[in-house]
């Protein structure tokens, strides 16, 4: 019987691989066609050809793009005003081998090519060649109103939603949902909730926050943010949505704006990476860290970290369905943009149709989070945070282990097909004091959505635990 099951499982894996190979080969061809179509559409709608990451084009601009050392990090200075840390940009944005190349085991080219030049008094001795799409975004961001050569991207773009919720008037701060004591009194500490990829603050405000007790609320303010590019927060077309940009927007919108002192962090999925980075910046202020389904993939020696994480998150398989969705989102820039146009640009229509279809019986907060983003935000966040975390997250985990004394608690669904339970145990291997709790029968979303009351009670116990 066991032998039959093993043979059946092997046959299923072989069938999955064979079908996946055909499907993704067809998607590779479709991606090439969409690339041409969107170049024409962008030119017609915006009057300019917009470079994309599926091409191998690069730009070298001596005197305009120079490298300098700052605190041990290499900084690109562009147009004397815009700075970019090289390690903030993942090479997976523009280095995604085709299925045939991947099968052949071809290696990935480096993120940035460098060539040595004679030293000049006004520039560094190293000149960089950077992908043209990155250069275009930075030039647009730095361009002045009268700069016709490098016009900034219009925001919103023609392919984005133009409603007020997707384009807030305050473009300098995130949307923040705040709940404080009913009597308006002072609080002892605060709690920051950070959502995951293509989600919003509603992931927390519609699930866990309503079940937080009056006693816990009496001593704490509860903050739930819409991350940069998602929900009701700004979605700038000239952002690369790097870890640095996300963290700085949280600082500006929550910690500085509300004068947050001591605080706890609760984060789901992609938000776990931001939570760790934030905790490292405020080691004395963080009282506890709670991670739900953290996306941590230790990179084996000899592997290129970003490419390894890309393959782990998006294995280019048609089954399970969530892996297929992740693979399409990670590997296909233009196909992902098509999905965003169909769903996100017309999110109000889809939300109305869903409400009517369900006779207004089902709340749509998950749909709100899933639909309210732009492709440029989701594409860059996915690559620069998830894939680009390779290497960085190890340093954050080591800092939490060695420099912070707060408690670390991790929850993971036993049926999570997107991020395996091993991700949480890998975090525990880096932070031995971390407590891992695996919930059987729950997946990547239901680990919160279907057990919000229990999770709220468990979080209160964590918050009340003294260091």
Give the helix/strand layout.
Blueprint: H1 2-46, E1 58-60, E2 65-70, E3 73-78, E4 82-85, H2 99-103, E5 113-116, E6 126-131, H3 132-142, E7 176-179, E8 189-194, H4 202-205, H5 214-218, E9 220-225, H6 243-256, E10 263-268, H7 271-281, E11 286-292, H8 305-313, H9 321-331, H10 333-344, H11 347-357, H12 365-371, H13 375-386, H14 392-403, E12 407-413, H15 422-430, E13 435-439, H16 446-449, H17 452-464
Parallel strand pairs: 8-9, 8-10, 10-11, 11-12, 12-13
Antiparallel strand pairs: 1-6, 2-3, 3-4, 5-6, 7-9
Helix pairs in contact: 1-10, 6-7, 7-14
Properties at a glance:
AB hydrolase-1 domain-containing protein; AB_hydrolase_1; globular; 467 residues; Rossmann fold; 42% helix; AB_hydrolase_fold; hydrolase activity; alpha/beta; seven-stranded mixed beta sheet; 17 helices
N-to-C series of helices and strands: HEEEEHEEHEEHHEHEHEHHHHHHHEHEHH
DSSP helical segment count:
17
CATH level 1 class label of the domain at 176-464 = Alpha Beta
CATH homologous superfamily title of the domain at 176-464? Alpha/Beta hydrolase fold, catalytic domain
User: How would you classify the helix and strand content by structural class?
Assistant: alpha/beta
The dominant shape is globular
Q: Taking Cα atoms only, what radius of gyration do you get, to the nearest Å?
A: 23 Å
Which strand-content bin applies to the residues?
5-15%
End-to-end Cα distance, whole Å, is 52 Å
Average of pLDDT: 85
Provide the low-confidence segments as ranges.
78-82, 105-126
Largest sheet: 7 strands, mixed
Strand order of the largest sheet: 7-9-8-10-11-12-13
Helical fraction:
40-55%
Provide the CATH architecture of the domain at 176-464: 3-Layer(aba) Sandwich
Instruction: Kindly report the CATH topology of the domain at 176-464.
Output: Rossmann fold
Count of distinct strands: 13
InterPro entries: AB_hydrolase_1 (IPR000073), AB_hydrolase_fold (IPR029058)
GO molecular function: hydrolase activity
Region (Disordered): 101-125
Protein name: AB hydrolase-1 domain-containing protein
């Amino acid at each position: 019987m066991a032998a039959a099951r093993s043979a059946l499982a092997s046959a299923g894996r072989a069938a999955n691989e064979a079908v996946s190979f055909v499907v993704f080969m067809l998607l590779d061809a479709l991606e090439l066609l969409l690339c041409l179509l969107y170049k024409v559409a962008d030119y017609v709608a915006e009057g300019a050809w917009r470079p994309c990451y599926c091409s191998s084009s690069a730009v070298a601009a001596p005197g305009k793009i120079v490298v300098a050392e700052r605190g041990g990090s290499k900084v690109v200075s562009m147009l004397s005003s815009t700075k970019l840390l090289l390690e903030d940009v993942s090479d997976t944005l523009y280095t995604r081998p085709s299925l045939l190349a991947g099968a052949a085991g071809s290696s990935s080219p480096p993120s940035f090519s460098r060539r040595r030049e004679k030293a000049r008094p006004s520039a560094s001795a190293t000149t960089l060649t950077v992908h043209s799409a990155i250069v275009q975004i930075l030039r647009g961001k730095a361009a002045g109103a009268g700069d016709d050569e490098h016009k900034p991207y219009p925001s919103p773009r023609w392919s984005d939603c133009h409603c007020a919720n997707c384009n807030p008037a305050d473009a300098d701060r995130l949307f923040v949902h705040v709940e404080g004591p009913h009597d308006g009194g002072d609080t002892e500490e605060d709690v920051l909730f950070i959502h995951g990829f293509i989600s919003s603050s509603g992931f927390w405000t519609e699930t866990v926050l309503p079940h937080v007790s009056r006693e816990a609320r009496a001593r704490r303010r509860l903050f739930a943010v819409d991350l940069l590019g998602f929900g009701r927060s700004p979605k700038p077309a000239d952002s690369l949505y790097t870890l640095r940009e996300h963290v700085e927007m949280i600082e500006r919108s929550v910690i500085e704006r509300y004068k947050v002192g001591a605080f706890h962090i609760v984060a789901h999925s992609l938000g776990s990476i931001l939570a760790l980075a934030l905790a490292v910046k405020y080691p004395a202020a963080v009282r506890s860290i709670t991670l739900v389904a953290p996306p941590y993939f230790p990179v084996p020696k000899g592997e290129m970290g970003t490419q390894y994480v890309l393959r782990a998150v998006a294995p280019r398989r048609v089954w399970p369905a969530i892996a297929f969705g992740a693979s399409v989102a990670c590997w296909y820039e233009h196909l992902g943009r098509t999905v965003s146009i169909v769903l996100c640009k017309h999110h109000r229509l889809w939300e109305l149709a869903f409400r009517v279809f369900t006779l207004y019986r089902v709340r749509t907060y998950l749909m709100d989070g899933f639909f309210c983003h732009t492709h440029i935000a989701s594409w860059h966040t996915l690559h620069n945070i998830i894939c680009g975390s390779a290497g960085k997250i190890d340093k954050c985990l080591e800092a939490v282990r060695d420099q912070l004394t707060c408690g670390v608690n991790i929850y993971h669904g036993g049926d999570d097909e997107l991020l395996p339970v091993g991700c949480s145990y890998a975090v525990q291997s880096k932070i031995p004091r971390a407590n891992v709790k695996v919930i059987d029968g729950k997946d990547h979303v239901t680990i919160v959505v279907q057990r919000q009351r229990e999770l709220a009670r468990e979080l209160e116990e964590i918050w009340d635990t003294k260091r």
